[in-house]
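Internal tracking record. Fields below are filled automatically when a chain is submitted to the structure queue. Please do not edit lines marked as system-generated. If the sequence contains nonstandard residues, flag them in the REMARKS field before resubmitting.
Queue: standard
Priority: normal
Entity type: single polypeptide chain
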Amino acid sequence: MQELTARQVKITDSFWSPRLSVNAEKAIFHQWAQLEATHCIDNFRIAAGEKDGFREGWVFADSDAYKWLDAASRIYALHTDPQLASLMDSVIALLGHAQLPDGYLFTYNQIHFPGQH
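SYSTEM-GENERATED OUTPUT FOLLOWS
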């Protein structure tokens, strides 16, 4: 038995297919808007030195950005969309800017306790 890749599987049934389309065309962009509205992405901008301000949200809010990027990547693998690609590229670049030289990335500690990780 050999494992199939995501690109080898086509879901075309009347139940899942419309839901996957909604995820690719609307939900992933709504989720991005929520990351912006809750300042999750701004926390990375602050940690990267791209923006001034105070960190907002739960201590574990960074994980929401990582989960969004995972979902966006899975969607993009099957539904290429230039707008989604651009958002993913911008988030990946932002994470790279916010990450410390030793690889550490946790906006709560980086903003509230700089140099103490």
